[in-house]
Amino acid sequence: MLRSAILCLTSPEKHFAEVIRYSVLGLGTYEDMLTRVIVSRAEVDMEQIKEEYRARYGSAVSLDVAGDTSFGYRDMLLALLGEQE
Question: Which residue range(s) make up the domain with 43?
Fold first, then answer.
């Protein structure tokens, strides 16, 4: 927990890229975690988070989110993410 707090303070884009990856990785989606990150960071630093996510995981955030969510929920998250990379 201390590691997460320090990472969030020193490099928030790395921390939030990890949180998004963890929430869409594997079977199912941690919807609360994914929604909280995307909604809270959409107007702040989502572009930096998307760049960090692509650099670390070799995939676009929007593609991973679209592949793991469905219907109106997916559309809302993709609208907040902005243009597809």
Answer: 2-81
In the structure encoding, which two tokens stand for residue 2, read together? 């201390």
Pairwise CA distance, residues 85 & 77, whole Å: 15
**pLDDT tens-digit readout, 13-51:** 999 999 999 999 988 889 999 999 999 999 999 999 999
Q: What DSSP character marks residue 82?
A: -
- Which is nearest to 31 in space by CA: 79, 78, 73? 73
Alpha-carbon distance of 36 to 23, in angstroms, equals 11
End-to-end Cα spacing for the chain: 31
**Helix and strand totals (H; E) in the chain:** 6, 0
The alpha carbon of residue 65 and the mean position of all alpha carbons in its chain are separated, in whole angstroms, by 8
User: What domain count does the chain have?
Assistant: 1
Say which CATH number the domain at 15 has.
Answer: 1.10.220.10
